[in-house]
Amino acid sequence: MALPDGWSTLRPTLDDLPAILDLMRASDIAATGEAETGEDDVKAALTSPHVDPARDCWLAYAPDGQLGGWAYIDNENGGDREFVEVFVHPDHGAPSRRPLLDMLLHRVAERAAERGSAEVVAKAGALPTEIDYIADIKAAGFQFEKRYARMRRSLDGVTPAPLPAGVTIRLVDPDDDEDLRLFHRVYDTGFRDAHDYQPRDYDSWRAYVAGLTSVAWDEWFVAEVDGVPAGVLMSADQLLEHNEAWVKNLTVLREFRRRGVGGALLRHAFSVYAAKGRAQVGLGVDLTSPTKAANVYLTAGMSAIYEADIFQQRVKALATRSS
């Protein structure tokens, strides 16, 4: 499907970050009532080592010159799973949504051919209330796969809680390469059990962390059981403007699960956030996770404020003409 008459596209650069952020936040507010996208989210999309903004991303402009749509491919590790993202301005961007989705899918097929893959998996996400976008996603060949939840709880009255027997929690040392390697090893090993986890090697992970706008190292925790590293929790600053703490990643190694380690990490983080004056804490979780992570969060007093559906389809590599 082509863009309507009068619409045009450009390739984004980092100079477009403020305009893209404004559009994504307008889309957030229309969908959930809150502007949750942060500067780091846009920056990550524009600087990913496995995505080229000059080939894999588009900005769509309405006939009056307003930015109406923003589309990009998200692929954290260069593997065979490509997440296609389309955001449109709620007031004037709708005409660009399906054309941008089709452009992304065509590009996914091209990328598969460039990598020498016969096919790849494309994924897309939408809130259940985004009826028009879901219709476009399904019309483009996607089928429902699973559901995520955006969770939150108040930090009012939260104080430090006792730890389970044998469990200790400490900060990671950002100046100690060995400790950072340990943190990454636990993070990477723990998430291998999660659906859709896309591994990054240590150097790629360090580059990702270095590219963040800010890192609150006093909110990155390592849990140990009888002195053995067992789990990690990584926080992010993406919702500070709302005075909301954010649990970016939490994982516990398989051999230490169901021993209270995940809950202990959460409660410890909550108390640190509360001591800083944060009003609430949030995170996102796969409701179909084999580790049943949602149960840990529910037990810790969190509840879903909205849910998001994930759709997927297999995309065959674009056939290339022989010379």
Indicate the topology.
Blueprint: E1 8-10, H1 17-32, H2 39-47, H3 53-56, E2 57-61, E3 67-74, E4 81-88, H4 97-115, E5 119-126, H5 131-139, E6 143-154, E7 167-171, H6 177-191, H7 202-210, E8 221-225, E9 228-236, E10 244-252, H8 261-275, E11 280-286, H9 293-299, E12 303-316
Parallel strand pairs: 4-5, 10-11
Antiparallel strand pairs: 1-2, 2-3, 3-4, 5-12, 6-11, 6-12, 7-8, 8-9, 9-10
Number of helices: 9
List segments where confidence is low: pLDDT < 50 over at least 5 consecutive residues.
none
CATH topology of the largest domain: Aminopeptidase
* N→C terminal distance: 29 Å
As for the number of domains, it is 2
Element order: H for helix, E for strand: EHHHEEEHEHEEHHEEEHEHE
Largest sheet: 12 strands, mixed
Radius of gyration: 21 Å
Instruction: Give the full name of the CATH homologous superfamily of the largest domain.
Output: Gcn5-related N-acetyltransferase (GNAT)
Strand order of the largest sheet: 1-2-3-4-5-12-6-11-10-9-8-7
Percentage of residues in strands: 25-35%
CATH architecture field of the largest domain: 3-Layer(aba) Sandwich
- Total strands: the figure is 12
> What class would the helix/strand composition place it in?
alpha+beta
**Mean model confidence by pLDDT:** 93
What oligomeric state do the depicted chains represent? single chain
